[in-house]
Design a protein that fits this description.
single chain, alpha/beta, seven-stranded parallel β-sheet, three-stranded mixed β-sheet, 7 helices, 14 strands, globular
């Protein structure tokens, strides 16, 4: 297939590209030029894809069969509350309008488990939406608007709600690479009681789930998850056991002050 991917330099986008290449013709919209270009990939560069209007995308989408839209504002420090999420919402609508006009066969968007009413704890695609953060509100709004935009057209609309991903290429400020870094340097790790229950999935497996759903005939939303509940404590201990450094993991009684930290979030496929 002829596939256009946005956000291909990101955590999830990189893995999707690895799995699609070289069996598909790829076009990547990126902010920065890669260290090494591949002649078999078509590159398009722009500083900010979300400032572009529909007309900018029209010629970029000619002969494209599928769009996998991974780009979004993801600065770990403030992505949950940043107003830049609204720019991403508006920019995504422009891409979608161009896809409809050109006749792209499939549009795949990336959402989040935080779109759901997380008080339900075990979350399926039938769980009501009740986002609480600017990030998740923007994602849910994008899903609802695009669902209507694509409703009567020929473009299949697919929406992948990601749960807790970890693995290769993750930024050091996130839990998994931070734990690995501390273990490597024989530093103690204290993450509080660690009794939160989560649904963790390796980003490589997540990318494969996204691709499987993208190539299927199914439309609408799906959960990208493991469906296996695990406490934060056991998740970290499992990492430490592989390094034979369980003695460095400490679980104190103090709860860390997080803006958004539900007790249970588990996906149902």
């Amino acid at each position: 297939m002829n596939i256009l991917i946005t956000g291909g330099s990101g955590f999830v986008g990189k893995q999707i590209i690895k799995k699609l290449y070289p069996n598909n013709k790829l076009t990547l919209i990126l902010r920065n030029k890669p260290d090494k270009k591949d002649r078999r990939i078509n590159y398009i560069f722009t500083k900010n894809i979300f400032t572009k209007k529909k007309d900018w995308f029209l010629n970029k989408l000619k002969n494209i069969d599928m769009v996998i839209h991974c780009a979004w504002y993801v600065n770990h420090k403030d992505y949950l509350t940043s107003p830049k999420n609204l720019d991403c919402l508006n920019g995504t609508i422009e891409i979608a309008k161009a896809c409809i006009e050109v006749g792209v066969k499939k549009f795949v968007g990336i959402g989040t488990c935080f779109e759901y009413d997380v008080s339900k704890k075990y979350l399926s695609t039938q769980t009501p939406l009740k986002p609480e953060l600017i990030y998740s509100i923007s994602k849910a709004s994008t899903f609802l608007i695009l669902s209507k935009l694509f409703e009567n057209g020929k473009t299949q609309f697919k929406w992948c709600r990601l749960f807790y991903l970890f693995g290769e290429g993750e930024k050091i400020t996130r839990l998994y690479p931070l734990v690995l870094h501390k273990l490597k340097n024989n530093q103690k790790i204290d993450i509080g009681p660690g009794n939160q229950i989560r649904d963790y999935l390796d980003v490589k497996k997540a990318a494969q789930q996204i691709i499987n759903f993208s190539f299927s005939a199914k439309v609408g939303a799906t959960n990208i998850c493991s469906s296996k509940p695990i406490t934060l404590k056991n998740f970290v201990l499992n990492i430490a056991k592989k390094k034979n450094k369980e003695h460095l993991v400490k679980f104190g009684s103090k709860m860390f002050n997080r803006k958004f930290d539900p007790k249970v979030i588990v996906g149902i496929k």
